[in-house]
Amino acid sequence: MRKTIPLAVLLAIVFACNEKKYTTSDTAASAATDSTAIDTVTRRFLPGPDTAMKITEAYARTVARDAYFWAWPMENIYNRRLAFKQAPRVGLMNGVIPFAPLNNLSMLHDYIQPQQRWVACPNQDVVYGAAIAALDETPVIVQVPDFGDRFWVYQVVDTRTDAFAQIGKMYGTQPGFYLLVGPTWNGVIPKGITRVFRSKTGTAFVVPRVFQDDTPEDRAAIQKTINGIDVYPLDKFDGQAKTQNWSALPSLASPVKNDASGETRWVFPDKFFDELPAVLKDAPPLPGEEARYAQVLAVIAAAAKDSLLKKAIIDEAQKAESEMVSPLLQFRNWGIPLASHWTTANNCAAFGTDYFTRTAIAKSNILVNVGIETKYFYQDLDAAGNRLNGANNYTVTFAKDQLPPVNGFWSLTLYDEYHFFVPNDIKRYSLGTKNKTLQLNPDGSLTIYVQANAPAQRDNWLPAPKGNFSLYLRAYGPKEAVINNTWTPPAVVKVK
Known about the structure:
Blueprint: H1 7-19, H2 25-45, H3 57-84, E1 91-93, E2 97-99, E3 105-107, E4 126-134, E5 140-144, E6 152-158, E7 167-168, E8 176-181, E9 193-198, E10 203-211, H4 216-226, E11 230-233, E12 251-252, H5 272-282, H6 290-304, H7 307-325, E13 336-337, E14 343-344, H8 355-365, E15 374-379, E16 394-398, E17 406-416, E18 430-432, E19 446-451, E20 461-463, E21 469-478, H9 480-483, E22 492-494
Parallel strand pairs: 1-12, 8-9, 19-20
Antiparallel strand pairs: 1-2, 3-4, 4-10, 5-8, 5-11, 6-7, 6-10, 13-14, 14-15, 15-21, 16-19, 16-22, 17-18, 17-21
């Protein structure tokens, strides 16, 4: 057993080493001995908090408030994993959203329905799929069919909502089989795998998106292609492409309570710190985060022994939810300011240690693509800086040759104040590339009418609901002018 050196002796060695001048081999040997002792001191006292130390409530609250904010997106994703774990088979949750057991995929066969509340800011430009991979249990195969000229991308993010796999048309990805593995996996890669992507966390979220025109013809044409999309455990891989009939999925009950207005809740202040150790184990610290992890885990350990301290950190989590996280639902409260009150973010799905942006996006529109895949522009206000509201009429006019510059497609989507669709008579929630009947003005410009009542130009009408709402512009396969914010959306003008 290693002999324990009294702290006083160690400190004396440290102080003495600062004064010594070594000039002979004997003193050099002595210096090496002293250096070993110093290293022992460093290893013993620098890694993190002393968990035997009694701490104050004020300190615990400070740590808890900070941790609640930066870990909020990770707990959000991890709790979705726990929900998917309860899926009895591949199907559609409540009949409207992909739902499957861990390490398996579920796909829609058409646009997402307006009543879903599982993920904020859905779009009706693509056919979605969803799989949550437990990479700490098994690697998974991601199957890519031949999409031809159709625009497509598979979003693949880890527990932090950072992307770690590049699979899509913009990457020149070829049909084949791609392998997702966890941070410590070192197994044998079977023959037939095109490429391997390694996650930094034990959980991965895979969301295929395949563009579909808003026409009956394309709804029929897309079926054969999407039936070749799949995700499944490595032990099911036989080198042969699997085919599914995604149009025949059963409706499954939700394992969680859905919010009638806003997004389904995935983070709960009263349970947050009970769940956090498992989440942090799933997502090991990034370089430089070691002390941050150790600090909050030490507070959690202290709270487990002190009911008053536990009560205090729960109270602080509740305050952080209402004071710090909830306001981030509104786009006008964060983002990079652009012309005419639009905002954007430049590091979507590449957040790293940008805790503010990561949490802001997780709260308002989680599961965004990286910038080369999709650029997002957000709007809560009209050109005069007033809140968008269905009591008013608005226009959004793209000048001639000034539609969003993309290699894929673009759309302008309207959401209610909770960032979901509001059912309307014509079942239209966005306008853009998918719409083949948009009418240009005589000068070649395009005007979209955002209002509650139908305008004369119905093909260009984006129906507005009662109350406050937001607009959201997507540019899939953005060109450089969009990526670097040289091109920005036109103003939302209130019509007098």
